[in-house]
Design a protein that fits this description.
24% strand, 655 residues
């Protein structure tokens, strides 16, 4: 058909209609696509393979002839016959010729320049339009930012807190709290929200808390709050954009979104039932109505509490993964100890330290003791040796007390009979180990005895039993928080004192292949090994070793009557490490002077101490316990510094 159109003299680009009455030469027809350009116009595009040769022909049949076929093509054979029948009728073909010698003339330079100029003018106009749109957009964004900044600045204007009336603004920073007045608000206990005895769903409450998490998205904001009275307690607070006050709620969401971690806030809201898996208060959440900043923390902290709260096991397990967990090292923690103590486990350790003191006092009060307070500035050494801090005392030399030893013995001479003290102890030991401190808290006791120092061992055993059982029964929540980060098990102990004599302990070590110094003190390794042997033989983590060699004990220790090379002294151990040292004391003045001389100590600074026994003193015994070491060993910590609020060692005297 294209060839015939060319033979009829059709020029390139022209259009002409003509009628062809020949039968269709198609041997087969394949219908490819049926579409409608308008409601009254349908076309069928068909490809026919000519039987007489390899040429392909294209035919366009009019829509009027094929309208009926458009709805009657259920099968391919019907379509083929229908098209063949239609081909017998006259066909009107429209052919657009693409051949011919006609070629457009080459444009002149002036025409090309004009076209180029027109194109560049359109491009410049388009770029100018885009620049204008961008400038308008930036101006609009800047204006909105200025409005938002002004609104936020208004929010930052201090809010008065000291009247019973609620502030006009629902959020903002408080003015500095300077005890101007009382608001009369009732503050809810976060640890009881949603629990029996606490605020329930539907109640409105005020809470003061720290911000530990902020998550804002679109028209909502979620806060995670930590209870300052119990850092292991957390709750969720949320705010959503309000349809009644969209602008006000939007601004409050912005205010909440800008809260920094560790900021202290007063927040009011309605409690609602919710399932919150990420917080300790998992049954309820707070729907925020008001929020005021009490103290704003900086955006960048020395370390994240989330990192500091991870266990060593979790950190180690993550090191081979794509996202290894960050660790916070000990020096960074101690340099910012106030922040480190907000970590739930470390905070709980301090609470358990307080619990040990409480239980220590309870037990001794029940056993007839009274609390005393002795001087810490003394004229001479209280323990002997050179491990003492010296200072000038108005022109004379004074020492920081290594223990209250001398004064609690004087208290027994004063017929106070049974005394104890909780106070600081100073040791100038240049020892950088995981279990030594230069200053720690001593739990000391002294008591008159009638016949044998075993009377004191019974008091000590009952006192430690009270501490161990009281910790597990009364402070289980704090223990659970600590053990989540620092794994440990309760200390095993016997009902009656487990007392091991020195020679028995040495023989156990020798039988195990060890070579202890039988007339010296135990090394750290031998202490641990003996603890393992005792635990295996007696099924206890807590035991007493007595009759230490005289060379390892201070001058005031009573000698063992059957062999002067040993003493009536004792140490108490938890998990193979010493937590307590004690002895029967020398109460005879002449024997005391002799032992002072044998130790090579000056007599002059101890004259008052010796004189207190010259006026008559009962036989007595006692013990000194390191509070931090008890907590450190009971909780299975890796370093005693974790059990000290602000530790002092040879390399650290601050903060």
């Amino acid at each position: 058909d294209v060839k015939r159109a060319q033979n009829k003299g059709l020029e390139r680009g022209s259009t002409r209609h003509f009628t062809d009455k020949r039968p269709s030469p198609c041997g087969s027809v394949m219908v490819l696509k049926l579409w409608a350009r308008k409601a009254s116009c349908c076309c069928v595009f068909a490809v026919a393979m000519l039987m007489q040769g390899p040429r392909t022909a294209m035919a366009f049949a009019p829509a009027a002839a094929l309208r009926r076929l458009s709805t009657q093509l259920p099968a391919s054979y019907r379509a083929r016959h229908a098209l063949q029948a239609a081909a017998q009728r006259p066909r009107v073909l429209t052919v657009r010729s693409m051949c011919g010698p006609s070629v457009p003339a080459e444009k002149t330079e002036e025409e090309k320049a004009a076209i180029k100029a027109e194109r560049e003018a359109r491009k410049a106009a388009k770029e100018e339009e885009q620049r204008k749109k961008k400038a308008d957009k930036e101006a609009k964004a800047k204006a909105e930012a200025e409005i938002a900044a002004a609104a936020l600045a208004a929010l930052r204007k201090p809010v008065s807190y000291h009247t019973s009336e609620l502030p006009e603004r629902v959020c903002g920073d408080y003015e500095v709290i300077q005890s101007r007045g009382l608001t009369g608000r009732t503050w809810a206990d976060m640890s009881k929200l949603g629990e029996e005895g606490g605020a329930q769903a539907g109640e409105s409450v005020w809470v003061r808390a720290r911000v530990v998490g902020v998550r804002a998205k679109g028209g909502s904001c979620f806060l995670v709050l930590r209870d300052m009275a119990s850092p292991s307690t957390t709750m969720q607070a949320c705010l959503f954009k309000s349809q009644e006050d969209p602008e006000g709620s939007k601004m409050m969401i912005k205010f909440l979104q800008d809260l920094t971690l560790e900021t202290i806030i007063d927040i009011q809201g309605n409690m609602a039932e919710a399932e919150v898996r990420s917080c300790s208060q998992s049954k309820v959440e707070m729907q925020v109505t008001r929020c005021y900043v009490v103290s704003r923390a900086p955006a960048i902290l020395p370390f994240l509490l989330e990192d500091a709260a991870r266990s060593d096991a979790d950190i180690a397990a993550s090191q081979g993964s794509e996202k290894p967990l960050a660790a916070v090292y000990q020096e960074n923690r101690l340099d910012n100890r106030w922040l480190d103590l907000r970590v739930p486990a470390n905070n709980a350790i301090m609470r358990l330290q307080s619990a040990v003191c409480q239980l220590f006092r309870e037990s001794l009060y029940k056993q007839g003791f009274m609390e005393i307070h002795t001087p810490k500035l003394i004229p001479g050494e209280s323990e002997g040796g050179s491990e003492v801090f010296r200072t000038d005392y108005f022109g004379t030399m004074a020492c920081l007390a290594q223990s209250p030893q001398l004064y609690k013995q004087m208290a027994i001479s004063a017929d106070l009979n049974r005394v104890f003290e909780v106070g600081p102890v100073f040791r100038a030991e240049k020892s950088n180990t995981r279990r030594h401190l230069c200053e720690f808290t001593g739990l000391d006791l002294e008591m008159a005895i009638t016949e044998h120092y075993d009377e004191t061992l019974v008091v000590l055993h009952d006192m430690f039993k009270h501490i161990f059982t009281g910790m597990e029964e009364r402070f289980g929540r704090e223990l659970a928080v600590v053990r989540e980060q620092y794994a440990s098990a309760p200390v095993r102990f016997t009902d009656k004192p487990c007392i091991l004599h020195w020679d028995e302990g040495m023989q156990m070590l020798k039988d195990a292949g060890e070579q202890p110094d039988v007339f010296g003190d135990l090394s750290g390794a031998h202490e641990l090994r003996l603890g393992e042997l005792v635990a295996e033989k007696y099924s206890t983590d807590f035991y007493i070793l007595d009759r230490y060699p005289a060379a390892a004990r201070p001058f005031y220790t009573m000698p063992y009557p059957e062999d002067a090379r040993y003493t009536n002294s004792y140490d108490l151990f938890i998990r193979g490490q010493e937590i307590c040292s004690g002895a029967q004391r020398v109460h005879e003045p002449e024997l005391l002077k002799k032992q002072i001389a044998e130790k090579g100590m000056p007599m002059e600074p101890l004259q008052d101490y010796i004189k207190s026994f010259e006026h008559g003193a009962p036989p007595h015994a006692g013990a000194g316990i390191g509070l931090e070491r008890v907590v450190f060993l009971y909780l299975g910590l890796d370093n005693v510094r974790k059990a000290s609020m602000f530790p002092r060692d040879p390399n650290r005297i601050s903060p």
